[in-house]
């Protein structure tokens, strides 16, 4: 098939998959893009239909439904789950509601896609895993949405590691730097409220880098030593919000920030490789700077999300006189996902990760195979985050990460 062509559509329309989504802000818009586009690029065994979008504000969710392409709007997630035209519930809400919605949806016989981090606590994540295991026996499947696994360069990096091209793993280095909270005048939002977000940069950004590191290496983290910091402890309360009580500053009412601004931790993988992680939302000048490097006995690779169509790879088995890091432009039809997109050299973007996520999930549902990342994968990340918080509370004491026994 020519690389300029999309995959051939089936002669007959595939069975319908009714999708209902809870939440319509940043992640809701990204997931909507994925659901709208996947079947127009890839030949899917099921036909996603955007059945209903849910949000608490009737007028706002109605506008979002029209803009994002949803057929109907609901203001109660329980009503969304009860709809007969919804086969899968996509959860794009703050973390404090993930467990309740996911468990209810699975018990109602729906498939579930839940945004990361899986939950706000290990206990909630464990309950979600148990619900997913029970639902799996009945034919309902659940997946957690770590979309960076679906960057073609990251998926290709996983292939190289799995093929043994790096040899014995020795180092893992990951950073995720943003700057949107650098200004102390930035307003207080739900992401800065521990009761809603669970944690700050740790859960928001750290969850991504922990999952990506464990995915690429194929190994869990087994222990960490951590530091966290909140640099701005109070921020302006948005006008009209009564959610927080705090002091009154020169710019008006201030409310307490109850999560971390930055997290820094080291650790070990199951094989003994050393790992370092940094996640911050106060790195001035950094917008979405996720970088990763793996070093092994036979080679190294590095990835930068701000250059997401590229992978740097070094084969240490080559002669020293000509060896070095090579830039691989991950746009060939042989690379993950690329056969259905554009000619070589025509790069993809952030939104395509959600298209690939929808594509992979639909294929798993149609075949009855467990989609990945699983809720168990989400729980493993949650356990790492909890160990980081525990270690930081104890002034960087090395903290083992509990491992799943089944």
Automatic annotation (TrEMBL):
KW Oxidoreductase (keyword) present: yes
Alphabetized InterPro entries for the sequence: Gfo/Idh/MocA-like_OxRdtase_N (IPR000683), Gfo/Idh/MocA_oxidrdct_glycsds (IPR050463), GFO_IDH_MocA-like_dom (IPR055170), NAD(P)-bd_dom_sf (IPR036291)
Pfam families according to UniProt: GFO_IDH_MocA, GFO_IDH_MocA_C3
Residue span(s) of domain GFO/IDH/MocA-like oxidoreductase: 157-301
UniProt keywords, alphabetically: Oxidoreductase
Residues covered by the Gfo/Idh/MocA-like oxidoreductase N-terminal domain: 18-137
UniProt KW Transferase keyword: no
Protein name from the UniProt record: Gfo/Idh/MocA family oxidoreductase
